[in-house]
Specification:
It is an enzyme of class 1 (oxidoreductase). Its EC number is 1.13.11.11. This is Tryptophan 2,3-dioxygenase. It contains 13 helices and no strands. By secondary structure, it is mainly alpha-helical. Helix 3 runs antiparallel to helix 4, helix 6 packs parallel to helix 7 and helix 10 packs across helix 13.
């Protein structure tokens, strides 16, 4: 079919009447979605829409990340490693998108942001329940975060549930144990509501997996997928920190945190420390 006068003809079969059919907009609930951007600055500042959409799209991606990670943990619990790794692989692609997204917000200059920042009140990304949920699923449990969400019963209930549930790392270690690898009982019986702390006894286990990869290929592959997951998460944290420094310098956060200094500390938090520690041991 040729194009005449730079105008494409519509195929005859294209549906045009949606008076009684589901449309693209109705399926995606676009009227609801696209009406959810409500700037609060007065007069409305041009760049506030960027700020809102940046954070709303992040929350949408976090919803999918949480969906995939919770499913991956369940698959591990049911000894379905293949499905778990497929879910983690999808999360890795989402993480790259989230990290690249910071470059859009970084186009917001300090002067532009300062003109509507005061209207945000105490709202802050620190209060993202989904972000905290992702951290909990990955193993960075912190009970002290829960009071922040007491005014939101649904978010509080979700985080309380995830605090008490095994992390994806807990599920992976239990999977390894069920498949004949020597996971210390202290790890399998630990209080999963607490953050996983470095356990030296796990390092020889991972060294064995890495040095006998051909005999433990599935476990070996899973270890590397988890390393990728943490690497990507730390890159996201770093880009967050640098974007904040670029936009507000060392000012305190709107939610009461110390801002960039608080984010800097997050870079010291880890999920799978033994998987990084084993690299020092391999080949020795």
């Amino acid at each position: 079919m040729s194009v005449e006068k730079n105008t494409r003809k519509l195929d005859k079969g294209i549906v045009r009447d949606f008076s009684s059919r589901m449309s693209y907009a109705s399926y995606l609930q676009l009227p609801t979605l696209l009406s959810a951007q409500q700037p609060v600055s007065k007069p409305e500042h041009h760049d506030e829409l960027l700020f809102i959409i940046q954070h709303q799209t992040t929350e949408l991606w976090l919803k999918l990340v949480l969906h995939e990670l919770r499913s991956a943990a369940a698959w591990l619990r049911n000894d379905d490693l293949g499905s778990a790794l497929k879910g983690i692989a999808r999360v890795k692609h989402i993480q790259k998108t989230l990290t690249e997204q910071w470059s859009v917000l970084a186009t917001l200059t300090p002067t532009e942001y300062s003109q509507f920042r005061g209207f945000l009140g105490n709202s802050s990304g620190f209060q993202s329940a989904q972000y905290r949920a992702v951290e909990f699923v990955l193993g960075n449990k912190n009970r002290k975060m829960l009071p922040v969400f007491e005014s939101d019963p649904e978010a509080h209930a979700m985080l309380s549930e995830l605090l008490a549930a095994p992390s994806i790392y807990d599920e992976f270690l239990a999977y390894l144990s069920r498949h004949g690898l020597d996971v210390p009982a202290s790890v399998l019986d630990r209080d999963v509501s607490r953050a996983h702390e470095f356990t030296p006894e796990l390092v020889p286990l991972f060294k064995h997996i890495y040095e006998h990869a051909a005999d433990n290929w599935s476990a070996y592959e899973a270890c590397e997928e988890l390393v990728d997951l943490e690497d990507n998460f730390q890159l996201w944290r770093f880009r967050h920190l640098r974007t904040v420094q670029r936009t507000i310098g060392m000012k305190a956060g709107t939610g009461g945190s110390s801002g960039a200094a608080f984010l800097q500390k997050a870079l010291e938090l880890t999920f799978f420390r033994e998987l990084f520690a084993v690299r020092t041991e391999i080949g020795q």
